[in-house]
Design brief:
Layout lengths: L9 H4 L15 E5 L3 E5 L4 H21 L11 E6 L4 E2 L2 E2 L4 E4 L4 E6 L5 H17 L5 H12 L2 E3 L2 E4 L21 H5 L9 H20 L3 H13 L4 H9 L3 H13 L4 E4 L11 E3 L1 H10 L7 H13 L5 H13 L3 H14 L4 H11 L12 H15 L4 H13 L3 H14 L4 H13 L3 H12 L4 H12 L4 H11 L16 H14 L11 E12 L6 E7 L2 E7 L6 E3 L11 E11 L2 E9 L1
Parallel strand pairs: 2-3, 3-7, 14-17, 15-17
Antiparallel strand pairs: 1-2, 1-11, 4-5, 6-7, 8-9, 9-10, 12-13, 12-16, 13-14, 16-17
Length: 606
Amino acid sequence: MRARWFLLAPLLLALTYTSPAQTSPAQKWFSVQTAHLISYSSDGRERDALEAAQRSEQLIAVFGEIFHRKEINFSPPLRVLVGHAPVNVNGAALIRTAVTRSPAADFVTVDLSQPDSWPLAAKLIASLTLENNYPRAQPWFDCGIASYLAGVQFNGDQMQLGGPPPGMAPPGIGEWADEWIPLAKLFAINELSQLPTAQRASFESESLALVRWLIDNNRLAEAGAYLSAVQARGVGPEQAVVSAFAMSSADLDRQVRESLEKLSVKKMPAPHIESSLLKPQKISAADAHVIETNLLFSGSEPDHALKELVTFMRVNQENAAVHRSLAWAFLMRNDMENAVEHIRRALALDDSDPAMHYLYARWVNRGEEDRIRIESAETRMGTELKAALKREPNYAAAWELLGLAELSGGEPKAALAKLQRASALCPRNNRYYLNLARDYEAAGNLDAARNLMLYARAGGDAAVSNEAGELLDQLGKSQKRQRQWEATGLLPDPNVKHSKYDNLQEAIEEDEKAEAKSKSPEARQDVRKIDYLKGRIVSVECGSPPGAILHVSSAGRTWQMHVADRNTIVLIGMERFDCGWHDAAVSINYEQSGNLQGELVSLEAN
């Protein structure tokens, strides 16, 4: 364990106040940790925490089955908090069915005292699962998937699929026939704010009807092709529908409406969640209070929440949870001196939290997460980022910052795998795609860089879109690019001074071990360049998992592209790797391994 520090930065004292904490009466809290989340019960009922964990994991498992995903990730982590009575902190009711978002964790709170609270919570959990595990999509797709999962009913070891969630009216039939929105118009809606309130219910129920038709007819892959066409390549909705579904939007509209006349609910075994692995644990009153106060940061009085945590910390100096929360709070305020004190205290008390190692690296980088502010970034941040990844291998932000550190040091090949991994773990983060494009440009792969810049430009983040447009204008123009990279922080700022806190003693020791290991014969780097080709997939060989071989025809020759792990390969415009692909137009980035043979790096649908 790291040595402990016992002095607070002077700036912290200015934020303290002397009034006692106004909290709800103490109650027993329980938690249950699962493969994907932690559930909490705030009113002393172990069973509630167990049920929340079971329901949430089953819902996530159904999502995985629908999209053929074995690995589901959440970045930031997912937390589910349930209770039968309001939890009040300083007069604020915390337990209502809603989502509270922060860089540290996403909380879904569930008010079990209200009827039908679980279907609404299920819809929120489904939306977060989709956001963290499926590329950028249009509102009808996101809304339809979330409603489909919210309508799943679990009953023991059985479940029912296909029914609407409670309170949703069936669209397009009977008295609702006149409310039907033609699918051509539905596809054109990119912002729900465009809709009048009266049409919102129709939009949601029609989105569910369309998604249900896609799932029942095994057409989700075509939906992915449609979304890729309209969002990545700018194809018009009607042309994209014809290309993806081999029918017009009017014909698709007719088929979806006809499916409503013969709607049936499917019954099948529910996903099995091993109950012996779900073990409730008591949460201390101190940790419970930290969780309660954290939920107030997204409310109307974040300053009051910060003061509450500072006051609480003064009498709970040995509580790692309060120091972690204060580290995040001060970092979000760009108060770096107070942030590092609490990062260090949290690590001294318990260094098992990957986020604190990541935040320490952020602090070394002057708080930045999307650009590099220091020289020798990989050396100075790498140890802490690798410590975070050792504790959480799917920590997207740590992969991203480590990749940027290597890219800023002139190592685009070493950075590529890290930036690809970050993009795969956060498939809707347009900034990650833009940074990956920078890496491809630095490596000389301008076609791949252009495609990713176009994809990032088409996203909903205005700042990223503008930056992507500027990068596209200067693509391949090295002198102008050098100045632009310096301006955006992807090259280190030589004027930033070093700090005495840049490396902990343990970090120095780990760096020395890593350096010695890197000089060993086993650590020789692969120096092959990344090449690019366009062609058509002729066939796919899926032998022993997780490997595969793609046979790709290009310029009259057939290549064999080896895939090391088809579950983690970077895919653009495709929802998953399919062993049944044939006659599919693709763009491929690869490393040549022999005559007409290569190791696949990434695969994009054309």
